Amino acid sequence: MGGQDGPTLIGSVQRAFRLLEAVSEHENGAPAKQLARETGLPLATAYHLLRTLVHDGYVRKLDDGGFVLGDRLDSLHTASRTQTLLSRVRPTLAALRDELSTAAYLTFYEDGEIRVADIVDGPRTPRVDLWVGFEDAGHATALGKSVLREMGEEARRDYLARHHLADLTPRTVTSVPELLRRIQSPPLAPAVTDLEEYAIGTVCAAVPVYRGGVIGSLGVSLPVERRDRLPDIRARLLSIASRVTRGLSLTI
Which of 77, 85, 90, 169 is deepest in the core (most CB within 10 A)? Predict the structure, then answer.
């Protein structure tokens, strides 16, 4: 028995995409009947697919009955743009990982939170165990403290008012005045360190990067036994950070 040539295609998915393409061609919206006619779909099929797309946010129904693209597509576009930017700098992060024999991390401050955007590690350079999310551990990580250091005073005050300084290890700073003192005058400035404040046995260093007007940080983690390498690592991070910022600032 001969097998069917070509991939197995899902017709309903193809029809939904055809509808999205048709909707995108009408800035002021188009009714279901017109969209069905333009896509060659039965009106009932077009109605069912449009109802689903509206429910999931990919299409929005106007008061006059017309359909336009929904906000969900804007978020997909933003995510796609971020992926494209990250793909530009990932080789640089991989080179940093291989040169320093450390896992490399990239974070950004978005929507009021410090979030990990990318981690480049490997079998010989494992990432630190992210046992507490960065949204709850900005005060205890070099990556988070680097972002806090670059913030304006008002933004930093707002962040600290919304985040409890949890005691993650015996070395974690849980006093806001002490945290501010340390991030304002770190020994390896402008690099910031985490000396077993997030995880016992691990130290980290991070420096600021920018994606346009968005603050971020570039950092590495390594076993505490290699702590004496931090000054040399600082120099390499500062050099690489400028390259990462240039890559992230290119327009698409």
Answer: 85
